[in-house]
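Morning!

As promised:
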Amino acid sequence: MQYHTHDIQIYYEDTDLSGLVYHANYLKFFERAREHLLGAGELVRLYHDIGVGFVVYKAELTFREGARLGNLLEVRTRVVVDGRYRAIFHQSLWRPGRETPMVDSAIQLVCVDQTQNLVPIPEHLISRLAEFAPPPPPSAT
Amino acid sequence: MQYHTHDIQIYYEDTDLSGLVYHANYLKFFERAREHLLGAGELVRLYHDIGVGFVVYKAELTFREGARLGNLLEVRTRVVVDGRYRAIFHQSLWRPGRETPMVDSAIQLVCVDQTQNLVPIPEHLISRLAEFAPPPPPSAT
Amino acid sequence: MQYHTHDIQIYYEDTDLSGLVYHANYLKFFERAREHLLGAGELVRLYHDIGVGFVVYKAELTFREGARLGNLLEVRTRVVVDGRYRAIFHQSLWRPGRETPMVDSAIQLVCVDQTQNLVPIPEHLISRLAEFAPPPPPSAT
Amino acid sequence: MQYHTHDIQIYYEDTDLSGLVYHANYLKFFERAREHLLGAGELVRLYHDIGVGFVVYKAELTFREGARLGNLLEVRTRVVVDGRYRAIFHQSLWRPGRETPMVDSAIQLVCVDQTQNLVPIPEHLISRLAEFAPPPPPSAT
């Protein structure tokens, strides 16, 4: 039931000549939300102390409606942890009060060390991510 | 057999603190390649003369290897035109001489008018896109 | 005595391989602060209703200290309105509690119409900008 | 008489809702030109071998005319080396065949080590930069 929310305001820098947000920038908004969910301080410590960082391995995005200058929007994030190595962030961008998201995505992250080799996601972060797990499916009965 | 190629050089602006290219920027490289394939002049005419533009509807990306400052890379593009309304760009980023791409993607574009309503892709562009169609599957015999 | 403040958090997207914020991005932070000072809704109305927009004519920046991932910083803005045509935004980026700014700037804006011709800054915006005028120099006596 | 030139094509990613290039992006174009002038390989070696990098200390920009999607433009660069510590890049953006630049700038760079302390510009780069020195003033006689 629980999802993480992060507010986004659309600035000039985000738009292109169509008047709408340039498509690649939605990936930035989703990453900002992930940095808030995990904590920027935590990410910095992880990188400096043990040389581990998150990297995006796969991303799937559907762009349904474009955002415009001045829009105040909300990124909603749920996380599925898949084993020790992989977390899938289901992130979507919402206009407050609407029934459908403007953009939705599934963004798969893994952890790598300084030589870009795969390492397990640190335990304490798995717990943090688990707070935003999607609800279990309704029981059959 | 035929695919479109576009050269990319990695600059400071493309990197982030990991030393590798920031993930959202690969979408920019793929769009630059599409603008070359279609012709920037053609895109400008389309937009000013009949108010039609291409927009990204879906994007799927797999990030296999990160690019670094100074890398000279190549975007390769093939296009599957799917009816009158949809073109799927299969775009990948290559380090010259390698057997596998650093990043690959399927990016689905549609055309919209000034009110963001779906319109058919103009005929003359469908012909242009068809030049970069993937090869037919080998015949069964 | 009065200046406008706007908070900035540094994200991955803002950094480059040096580990510090890419220099051009500070201009984005200063523009976000200007959009908050003037009001994004006001800027949108101005553009849609009378076809007038602000453009940067000159910018002078001094970069004293680089910002890093996760830094929580503050943009401080004062505005000198110079006649009907020109507003000079004195904007600086601060680490809370420090005596000197990390970056400071003087950014000169003018208003233009749809054909990029100079027009006076609308009266009601001049009043808004005047709220953030620098303090008068101390009197000589 | 000699200046360095670097070609720029304007893409969707460079524009904002005004239809013109977003002001901060001109700083990116100027930096790309500097990377070509110095050589990206040289910059990478400098950073990896002796931990030295160039950073922008000051930038002054005047924006005279906005660039648009599809424009093919030229960055022209001259360099004034000022002692062992400072190089001033006079960089401007030109539309081919015009008498005045669209944007011009003076961008002051210094070298820093890994702890962000000032170090002299390496000798062999000073020679490289000197190739693009402005012409001497005409002699008085």
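Chain A has one domain: 4-130.

Hope this helps with the figure draft.
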